[in-house]
Amino acid sequence: MKNKLRFDSRRRFLLKAATAAMAAPVLLGQPLRAASPNGRLQHACIGVGGMGWGDLQQFKKHNLVDIVAICDVDEKNLKKAADLLPNARTYTDWREMFKQEADKIDSVNVSVPDHNHFVIAVEAIRRRKHVYCQKPMCHDVAEVRILTLEATKAGVVTQLGTQVASTSGDRTGVEILKSGIIGKVKHAYLCSNRPGAVAKYRHVGPRPTEGIENPPSHLHWDNWIGTAPMRPYVPNIYHQAIWRTWQDFGTGWSGDIGCHIFDAVWKGLDMKNPISVVAEVQKSWQESPERRADTWPQGNHITWTFPGNEKTATDQLTVEWFDGEFYPPKEIRALFSETDYPAESAMIIGTEGALLIPHQKMPVLLPESKFKNYTPPIKPDRNHYHHFVDACLGGEKTESHFAQSGPMTEAVLLGTVAIRVPDQLLIWDAKKMKFPNYPLANQYIQRKYRKGW
């Protein structure tokens, strides 16, 4: 009973802090750690396996970065990174790393499973370290709100790991939307129907009860579990292959890819907090209590209603998301007739035409014949990681700083809340951070952390 009270108290505290963030003044914290005398960034990598290995490579390539510390719960990942960076100090617990490196590092990147993003990133920010955090920013809506506020108060440099936001395609798409060339926007259709994604990344069964083993000696399982409920170790189920499919650890397919696809639309249309959200999900998942309790579905159709503005045709804007077995309407896909409709893309419908922004490709104005003489404002590619480093060293603001990407991530994660109560329209009170018309869904705004976290 005491543990339950402690969990509930922490949840109430986080929600109270998150709602207070809406009215809180922006306060600058203590000065940041002084830059190195030679103008170099002293950086620590937290999570160096999987996506973290790629992130490490990018930071290593910047000629003004010294990776002085590396941390991973898996000693195999750590050894691989240490072989590449023999002078970096190594840790298996990020908490110990912060204690030992408090006055030695300027910045960190957080490249671990979603459920531990917040606790690591907020600790870094409170220690006045610049933070690059993989998407989604956090696992829960309330965590995002708090992290956004903390970053703003601290005045640190931040960057969400939406690397495609720094590509020419997305940056140009933003400029086209801002130009108004397609007229007032009426509707937006986002999708991620990546071939093979379902089989590769999503576990369709309930929590495994067979194949349970003791964690291997090289894996610090308690640290990997972190804020989530303790689960027995099962090879090839959680670490490090398909953790995204589990509600304990990941945010499903829409949470994983949604920030990428949403980004240019959000920026280009100056979007704000949604008014409502509703989700249609895979029928077999919806009809299975065991799967609904543990995993994310393999197909989602999420619909948000946002307040309109000077860029929209009406006082409300509808945005739809499709993944897995759900696809954008045929008539929308038919607008792009030259080849197969991009499996991952955003289609924005305006009063004077449409704009298709394929994931990792250049945008296309439709119908192409109408816009054949239009020269779009092409923006160049830039390195998302290096842009963060340059900002830490005094350069221009990052592409996906938390004040920009935090509210967008909140909207994406509200979609994951709607997934858990399918077919129920949820009215969102952004100021109070709750669903006044359906209180049952409020439990999904913030998790209960495991004791000690």
Question: Could you please describe the fold and organization of this structure?
Answer:
The chain has an eight-stranded mixed sheet with strand order 13-12-11-7-10-9-8-14. A six-stranded parallel sheet has the order 3-2-1-4-5-6, with helices on both faces. It is built from 15 helices and 14 strands. It has two domains: 2-165 and 385-405, Rossmann fold (3-Layer(aba) Sandwich), CATH 3.40.50; 168-380 and 415-444, Dihydrodipicolinate Reductase, domain 2. The chain is globular. With 453 residues, the chain is α/β, with parallel strands linked by helices.
Roughly how many Å is the radius of gyration?
Answer: 22 Å
Total DSSP E strands: 14
The oligomeric state is single chain
CATH architecture of the largest domain: 2-Layer Sandwich
> Could you give the order of strands across the largest sheet?
13-12-11-7-10-9-8-14
Helix-strand pattern? HEHEHEHEHEHEHEHHHEHHEEHEEEHHE
The major β-sheet equals: 8 strands, mixed
CA-to-CA gap between the ends?
Answer: 18 Å
Strand content: 15-25%
User: Which class best fits the helix and strand makeup?
Assistant: alpha/beta
Domain count: the total is: 2
Per CATH, the class of the largest domain reads: Alpha Beta
Which runs of at least 5 residues are low in confidence (pLDDT < 50)?
1-8, 21-31
Q: What general outline do the C-alpha atoms trace?
A: globular
